[in-house]
Amino acid sequence: MFADVGAEFGDDRPLDEPRLNVLTVNGIQLLDRLDPNVAFVTELANVGSITWPQREHIVNLTQPRDRNDKLLEFLTRRSVANFEQFINVLAREQAHLVPLLSNGGKYTLLIF
C-alpha cells in the first residue's frame, strides 16, 4: 500500500520507492508482454506519461524488447502522475497487463 502524500506534494513528485519496486520487479514481465506499437507509445505521449522526444526515441528502436526496456527506463524517471497515466493507458490498450502492476487499484509485486 502506498502512502498518500499527494495532497501535500501533488502528483508531480518523483516516482516513489514502492512504484519503482513494482516497475523493477514486474518490469521483467512487461519486457516480454507489452506491445510497444507506435499507437500505444503515441498515446502515452498524448496523455503526458512520456515526453514527445522520449516517444521519438522509443519508436526509432526496432526491437520490441528494446522499446519496452527504454519505456520502462523513462517511466522510472517520471512522476507519480505520469505513472498513473501509464496505468490508465495500459488499462485501455492492453488491459491484460494491468494485473502485473496493480490489484484493485492497489499496486503489488507479482513474481512469476
List the helices and strands and how they pair.
Blueprint: H1 6-9, H2 17-33, H3 38-47, H4 52-59, H5 64-76, H6 80-93
Description:
By secondary structure, the protein is mainly α. It has a single domain (14-100), classed as Death Domain, Fas (Orthogonal Bundle). The protein is built from six helices and no strands. The protein has helices at residues 6-9, 17-33, 38-47, 52-59, 64-76, 80-93. The radius of gyration is 13 Å and the shape is globular. The two termini are 20 Å apart.
Morphology: globular
Number of domains: 1
Briefly, what CATH class? Mainly Alpha
Number of distinct beta strands: 0
CATH homologous superfamily placement: Death Domain, Fas
Radius of gyration: 13 Å
Q: Spans of 5+ residues with little confidence (pLDDT < 50)?
A: 1-9, 104-112
**Helix-strand makeup class:** mainly alpha
CATH third-tier fold name: Death Domain, Fas
N-to-C SSE series? HHHHHH
**In DSSP terms, counting alpha (H) and pi (I) runs of 4 or more, how many helices?**
6
- Strand content range: under 5%
Would you identify the CATH architecture?
Orthogonal Bundle
Distance between the amino and carboxyl termini: 20 Å
The main sheet comes to: none
**Fraction of helical residues:** 55-70%
Average residue pLDDT: 83
Descriptive labels:
single chain, 112 residues, Death Domain, Fas, 6 helices, 0% strand, disordered C terminus
